[in-house]
Amino acid sequence: MNTKQSFGEYLRKLREDQNLPIRKVASKLDIDPSTLGKIERGERSANKEMIPLLAELFEVEEKTLGLILFSDKVAYQIIEEENTNEILKVAEEKIKYLKNKNLKQGSLDLK
């Protein structure tokens, strides 16, 4: 796995490595082939509901797909900022704090 690849690039590589046409993969995801093409080109984001379907289709771990998808989302959110490394460090600490706080309270409700 190349973690520098975007989710779309990784998805395209998986599809091409298995010689699957875009329409067949799109059909499995219940989306239009043009939508899948946009995801592969980075013009549109995939959603987490696609992960189990793609993991099964390409026989890869859901964790791997989730890691690439969610790291894309984080990267695109902060790419324009000057202090990205600091933001990531603070976010990591904040995640630990929130998980710990919510474990003590009994639930995590971020909606």
Features:
6 helices, mainly alpha, globular
Would you give an account of this structure?
With 111 residues, this protein is an all-alpha fold. It is 68% helix and 0% strand. It is built from 6 helices and no strands. The chain has helices spanning 7-17, 22-29, 33-41, 50-58, 62-78, 84-105. The protein is globular, with a radius of gyration of 16 Å. The mean pLDDT is 91.
Q: Helices and strands in order, then pairings?
A:
Blueprint: H1 7-17, H2 22-29, H3 33-41, H4 50-58, H5 62-78, H6 84-105
Short characterization:
The protein is mainly α. It has helices at 7-17, 22-29, 33-41, 50-58, 62-78, 84-105.
Overall, the morphology is: globular
- Element string (H = helix, E = strand): HHHHHH
Task: Report how far apart the termini are.
Answer: 32 Å
Poorly predicted parts = none
Could you tell me the radius of gyration in angstroms? 16 Å
Number of strand elements: 0
Share in helix: 55-70%
Main sheet overview = none
- The helix count comes to 6
Output the structural class.
mainly alpha
Amount of beta strand: under 5%
Mean pLDDT: 91
